[in-house]
Structures are given as structure tokens and as C-alpha cells.
Amino acid sequence: MKNIEHNTKIRNIAIIAHVDHGKTTLVDLMLRQSGVFRLNQEVDERVMDNMDLEKERGITIAAKNCSVLWKDVRINILDTPGHADFGGEVERSLSMVDGAILLVDAAEGPLPQTRFVLRKALESGLKMIVVINKIDRKDARPKEVLDEIYNLFIDLEAHEKDLDFPVLYAVGRDGIAQKTLEEPGKDLSILFDTILDSVPAPVYNTAEPFQMLVADLDYSDYVGQLAIGRVFNGSARCNDNLVCIKEDGKTIPIKVTKLQVYNGISIEMVDEVHPGDIIILAGIENVSIGDTICNESVPKALPRINVDEPTVSMNFTMNTSPFAGEEGTYVQSRKIMERLRRETLQNVGIQMEEASDSDTYIVKGRGEFQMEILLETIRREGYEVSVGRPQVIFKKRDGQTVEPIEHLYIDCDEAHIGIVTEKISQRKGQMLNMVNHGTGRVRLEFTIPTRCLIGYRNEFLTDTRGTGIMSSYLKGYEEFRGEFKSRLTGSLVADRKGAAAPYALENLEARGALFVKPGDLVYEGMIVGEYSRDGDLNVNAAKGKKLTNMRSSTCDDNIILKPVMPMTLGKAITFIRDDEMVEVTPKSIRLRKKILAADGRKGSRPRGQKAVEEEEEE
User: Fold this and answer.
1) Could you report how far apart the first and last alpha carbons of the chain are, in Å?
2) Given the DSSP bridges, would you call strands 391-392 and 312-318 parallel, antiparallel or unpaired?
3) pLDDT class for 369, splitting at 50, 70, 90?
């Protein structure tokens, strides 16, 4: 068409890969070698992971934007998460780019998230560049991995033109890329040149008005809400009169106070933006991800961003324990609702709806890990909440109940094959494949219901002595595979308020594993340990030793208790059962019963009750 043109001064590209395959490290070296940082400038490792949780856990949670300048061409780079639970971040990022770098570990090869992100990229029609990273590993097998990548493209029914992708080999940590395994590389210049040669320049229609698709939201204390997205057509200047087209087609007039673009990892002010630019509009209210911002005179919407449906839900409610309000700043139900609603605006993978109970909110997402990150984020902001166990979202198909099924990949030592396959089969898993490369480690593939996978990760790490690697992606929905009991043990439940006493805890150690230490405050209905048998047992964790004037040589011996494993959010939300909750505050993580009073709970009994019943029967 005669009105179609290309903006040759811009390239937009995303870096996609499985978790821990080196995306953020590669972006670090691209920023350094393109001249973003001075030679003597001190910069933190993984500079794009700027959230506290990202630095602590060593993973990317939210997609980030940056840009580099190479041969007078601005390359906008989007660093995406590698964990399957944050797939919504990948999907919205792909809406802003024309190409993608598929990064694959030279030893591990394509893994579940590799398949997920590649499928999304191919559906978006992006030009692919394959980079096989970490070729310096002792167990690297780049030739076999390249064959696996071709097989993955074919398995995803890629078109013939998609199979004609450039292949580079890299050591991202050292900032080296090369075209062949034999020819040693010196820097990343080959990667930059390949991006300019292979990734198409942004296409736009000169006859169309200004159109921008909002792909991300942020907030500034100085200028208010920020809308981030790509300009598809036309141009805009500061103080232009624009409109925002919502999902229902309604238009809201807006006025832009600032126009900004990315320059390295920072942003800079510009007077005008052009097609292909990834920009930041400041001073905009009531904008959602997926909205179109365009000229007031010619409002024309772009296709909205579509993401996969959530598979897991959790109930969030206000904290009603006796310790409510002692550690947090925001306790009210209204404050929790406002915070969750704000999260749905910024995170396309999260949905929220109100339950029949006015103080309860149902939050839906991709997995329990995404829920754990959300909980950890809001507790650090000063919120107190109580949450239930993650529940899988079932569907009805042709009158039958279907459930989400995961394609599970496990990499473990040969010695642990037996225990792993036994545990997976107990959880309704079915083995698909087993590959042994002769290195002492084995790769296993299963299909398993999502609900049966919840809570298995910690158990898996224990079974494999911390050496196993487990990852999965959503395969689809299949018929319900039958009931599965998430936990065979019960709970030790405190029957009164007080401080945990060493004397009481010593006597309770024989009943199961404890969650509290001497001096910890407990209350009626709080879970203080895991009971070794099925059912719950009400216990007095605050019972002290009776004082008498009698003396003996052993009465004052020191009480030595077993160390208590600190309770983490991830462990807590997968440990509880349906009648239990996790109390989350900025300083504490406590387990509790939904009904605190022992009289209102079924299936619980005080200590000694069973023995009394047996005596009566005799």
C-alpha cells in the first residue's frame, strides 16, 4: 500500500526465555557495551531487576523497558519474566515489539516457559532471533539444543518463514556473542547488528491518526499516573487534546502534560513522539491496560491486549484475629479492596471480584507463586489480610467438569527417580517421557492436575535433597481426574490466648512438628504445629510448669527444643486446608482456623478426650 512506511530509526524487541536462562544478565551487558554507562561507573548486577523482591529472589517479576543506541538506531528492549505465573507480563510486552530474542540455556535446552513464550511470539507474528546462551558450561550441548529448538518450532506449527531464524551463541555473563561455535566472539556487536538486520522496523500508515496502545501503567508522586505503550500511527505533542477509548467503547478526554521516552534505563523529555516509539504519557487518569489513546478529532481503537484466563483463585479478607491492627497500618476491608483493585489495573494477569460475603474478595491469577508475590508485596506496604488456600478454577464442558492440566518437567538425579515418580502418581500424574543423557541426571515429563501440584514444590525439594528442578506450563483443560487429599496430617490448635511456654512445647513435640517458639504469642484457634495424625487436636501451648517447694536433682534441667523451621508465605498458603487461613501482617505469618472458637469447629477434640471415650466404652 502506498501509505505504508517504516521508521528505520527504531527497533522494538523483547527478550524471552525460561527462568534463569540469563535474560536480565544479557540486558546488563547490552547496556554496558552500548555506552549507556560510563566505563568507570559502578552499576549493580541485574540492574533491570529493581524491585526488592526481584533482588532477593533473583528472578524477574515485572517486565521492564530500556533502550540502547546502536549505529544511530534506537533499540527499545523489553526484559520479560521467565516464570510461568507471570505470563501476563510477557503477553502485554509482546504487544509493543516487532521481534524477540529467544534465549535458551546451552545445557538445559527448551523448558516449559520457553514453549509458552515462543507460542505467544509466533501467534503475534514476531521475527525471532535464537541465542543459545551459557555455551561455556561444562555440560553444554549446543548442537543438540539447537535441534530441540527446531523441533519446538515445528511442534508449535510455525510457518516455514519462521524457521528461517538467525542463530547466535553467547556467554551472556561475559558479554560475548558469536555466529558459530568455532569462531570465538569478542563482544555483543554481532548481536546488535543481527537485531538491526533481522528485526523489521516499525510499520505505520501515514493516513491514520495518532494511535497508542496502553501496555503498562505506573505512578509518579510528582506527575500522577503514567501510561506506557507503543505509538502505532501518527504523532503527538505535549498538551495535545487526546481521548482514551475504554473497553466498552466510551471515550474519555485527556490532556497530556509530559511526553517521555526511554534513554538507557532512565527516561527523557521529548516535544514530539513518532510511530514506533515506546513512550510514557504523564498526567493521565482513568486509563487501563489495553485502552487506546488517540486524537480527539478521529477516535479509532486498536485491538485490545488479550491474555490467558486465570487458573487459580484465593479468598482475601480482613484480619479478624485477636492481634488484628497491632502490626499493620491498613486493616480495613475498604483499604484492602482499593489495593487489590489497583493491582488489577497494573497487572493484566490478576482479576478480582467481590464474594457474597461483603468483606471477602476473590483474587484470580496464574498460580500460587503469583499469589505469594502479591501477598508479600502488600504486606510490605503495611497491609494486614487473611487468605485461604489457593483453589483451582474448574470449568463445565459438554456437561462435564474439566480442570486445568499442567505439563510438568522435572530434572533430578537418577537416584531420586523412584520417589519422584511415586509422589507424582499419587497426585494423579501421568508420565509422558523420560530422557537420560548419561550425565547422572534424568529429565521426566508428566501431565498433572494443577490442584495436585499445589504444595508439592517444597516436598519435591526435600525428596531430591534440594538438587531437583521442577517447572510446568498450562497444557489445557481435561476431564476431572478424581479426588486428591492435599494433606494426610492434622493441626495442633491452641485453645487459649497467651505466650508459648517451653514446658508445654516440650510435651507437644511428640505430637508433631511445631511452628512456634517459646515466647511467641498465641491465641485460641491459632495453629501452633502439624499434628502427626489426621484430624485436629486442641492443645494448651501456654501451659507452664507448676511451682512447688519440693526439690530434686533433675527438676530444674534446661529444656532443649528442636529448632523451628521459619514459616514462609509460600509454605503457609500451600500447607493450610480448606477450613484454615493464613494471617499475613508486615511482621508475622500465622496459621489459624477460619472459626477460632473450638466449640464452633467440627472434627477437633481436646487432648485426652479419646482416652476418656475408650474408658467409658469399657
Assistant:
1) 95
2) antiparallel
3) confident
CA distances from 136 to 25, 26, 105, 253, 304 (A): 15, 15, 10, 55, 42
| Spatial contact of 231 and 208, defined as CB atoms under 8 Å apart | no
Q: Nine-digit cell at 88?
A: 501476563
**How many Å apart are CA 55 and CA 162, to the nearest integer?**
35
Question: 497 with 522: CB under 8 angstroms?
Answer: yes
Task: Give percent above pLDDT 90 in the chain.
Answer: 29
Our measurement of the distance from residue 517's CA atom to the centroid of its chain's CA atoms, rounded to an integer in Å, reads 31
Torsion angle, alpha carbons of 93, 95, 101, 102, to 10: 80
Q: Is the pLDDT of residue 607 over 70?
A: no
Amino acid at 512: G
Contact 97, 216 (CB under 8 A): no
> DSSP readout, 535-555?
SEEEE-TTPPPPP-S---SST
Q: What share of the chain is helix, strand, coil (3-state, %, to 5)?
A: 25, 35, 40
Q: How many CA atoms lie within 13 A of 139 on its CB side?
A: 9
Q: What is the mean pLDDT of residues 358-382?
A: 89
For β-strands 127-133 and 167-171, DSSP reports them as parallel
Residue 55 one-letter amino acid: K
Q: Which residue has the cell 497500618?
A: 329
Comparing CA positions, the residue from 130, 594, 153 lying closest to residue 387 is: 594
Which cell goes with 613?
471415650
C-alpha cell at 566: 521459619
Contact present, 15 and 78 (Cβ < 8 Å): yes
Indicate the DSSP class of residue 439.
S
Q: Which three cell numbers stand for residue 585?
A: 501482617
| Interatomic CA distance for residues 568 and 56, integer angstroms | 14
Cell representation of residue 410: 522435572
Cβ–Cβ under 8 Å, residues 89 and 63: yes
Confidence at residue 50, expressed as pLDDT on a 0 to 100 scale: 58
| pLDDT tens track for 186-205 | 889 999 999 999 999 999 88
Residue in 161, 82, 85, 147 with CA at minimum distance from that of residue 118: 82
Q: Which of 229, 203, 197 is nearest to 216 (CA)?
A: 229
Q: What is the pTM of this model?
A: 0.82
DSSP lists the bridge partners of residue 79 as 15, 64
Residue linked to cell 482479576 = 351
The SS3 assignment for 341 reads helix
Res 614 pLDDT > 70: no
Three cell numbers, residue 33: 557495551
Give per-residue pLDDT as tens, 142-168: 999 999 999 999 988 888 888 889 999
Question: Alpha-carbon torsion 108, 114, 116, 119, what sign?
Answer: negative
Sign, CA dihedral 49-51-57-62, equals negative
Please identify which residue in the block is written with the cell numbers 487429599.
485
CA dihedral 505, 507, 510, 511 (to 10 degrees): -70
Q: Can you read off the three cell numbers belonging to residue 264?
A: 538507557
The CA distances from residue 122 to 119, 156, 357, 593, in Å, are 5, 8, 43, 47
- Which of 311-320, 375-384, 563-572 bottoms out in mean pLDDT, i.e. has the lowest? 563-572
Residue 610: name the closest of 515, 528, 511 by CA: 511
Please return the burial class of 180, using the count of CB atoms within 10 Å of its CB with bins 0-12, 13-18 and 19+: exposed
If you average pLDDT over every residue of the chain, what do you get?
85
